[in-house]
Amino acid sequence: MMKKYSCNGLRYTVNALDADSEFCIYEINEKTKEFVYSGDFINYELDSELSLLNDTLNSMLFGDIDEYYKELRMLPIWVTEVGQNSEMSISVDEFNEMIENNKNTSFYKHLYLTDCKYLVGTMQNLLFAVEEAFIRYYRTISISYDDEKYSKDEGFTGTVCEMSSNSILASSAVETYFTKAYSILDIICKICYELQFKNDDYSRYRKLLSSSKLWGDRKKLKLYEVPNTLFEKCTSICTIESIRNEIIHNGTWELYPKIFTRYKSGQAKERYLLFPDIVQGHLATFKNRRHFFSNRRKINDILPEIHEEFKKRLLNTIKIVNKDFFT
């Protein structure tokens, strides 16, 4: 037996995977919290390409991969771990002293490479968080409790809304999704800056060239407007930007998040949150008002579309980068 989280926001118990025509998520292992859904194979492709991205960075600095691994075996652990790993108790002053006492071009090159790879690792963590938030949304709305007033009335047909801790948690999952997805845009922009504007000076330990670069600086990159990448202007990416900015700068996208439940003859048939009105990828806005819901579009329906396109564009972007696009 396994749980099935349907696009209609309801949860079912099933014996096996179905050939579903609409989106749904299956919890195939409750103990390990293992989930599957149509199209999730792209996660394995992303893992593979991100691993290759580390090799792309290795090649950028060392050319000869064997030489890189030979040097890596000889490096003291602080070069690759201090300042990035909580297991290391060395302070910033001690780290600075270590660098001053080890003025070595090879050390500086490995320090720089480790900092670049930290960006790749960060993106992997963000992807995990995006995936978790995506699944958590459907799980959260599915456990919303029926109001006994309606579920016990076999003659009741209509839609009611629920404002509760559960509706806040469902909204929070979506907010996490958009903020983490946008952070991936920032990180991929930084990585591309490092590859396009290569640092060839290893006479000292330098800040990353991309330290101050964010998604808003993408227009200077060669990848800008390349078709089927994150850098091509499209509604999904604009929507991620718009929702993320509203959450970060104004706190939320709805003051009182609500789960809507549609009943038919006393039975819950659908649960969902509403997505705000979007015009060409931007929140419909009039002066101070940005939260309009006239289109009655459901997050349940929109989120899988955004999720799929975002990951496809990310995958295409990384594949292009790994094919020596910047050389």
- Report the end-to-end length measured between terminal Cα atoms: 52 Å
SS class: alpha+beta
Radius of gyration using CA atoms only: 24 Å
Strand arrangement, major sheet: 2-1-3-4
Q: Note the beta-strand portion.
A: 5-15%
Characteristic key phrases:
9 strands; alpha+beta; 2 domains; 3-stranded antiparallel sheet; 327 residues
Describe the structure concisely for a colleague:
The protein is α+β, with helices and mostly antiparallel strands. The protein is built from nine helices and nine strands. The strands form three sheets. Strands 2-1-3-4 form a four-stranded antiparallel sheet, covered by helices on one side.
Describe the structure.
This is Cthe-2314-like HEPN domain-containing protein. It comes from Gallibacter intestinalis. By secondary structure, this protein is α+β, with helices and mostly antiparallel strands. The protein folds into 2 domains: about 1-40, no CATH class; about 40-320, no CATH class. The protein is built from 9 helices and 9 strands. The chain has helices at about 40-60, 65-75, 80, 90-100, 105-140, 150, 165-195, 235-250, 300-320, and strands at about 1-5, 10-15, 25-30, 35, 160, 260-265, 265-270, 280, 280-285. It has a 4-stranded antiparallel β-sheet with strand order 2-1-3-4, with helices on one face. It has a 3-stranded antiparallel β-sheet with strand order 5-6-7. The protein has a two-stranded antiparallel ribbon with strand order 8-9. Helix 7 crosses helix 8 (about 235-250). It is elongated, with a radius of gyration of 24 Å. The model has no long low-confidence stretch (mean pLDDT about 90).
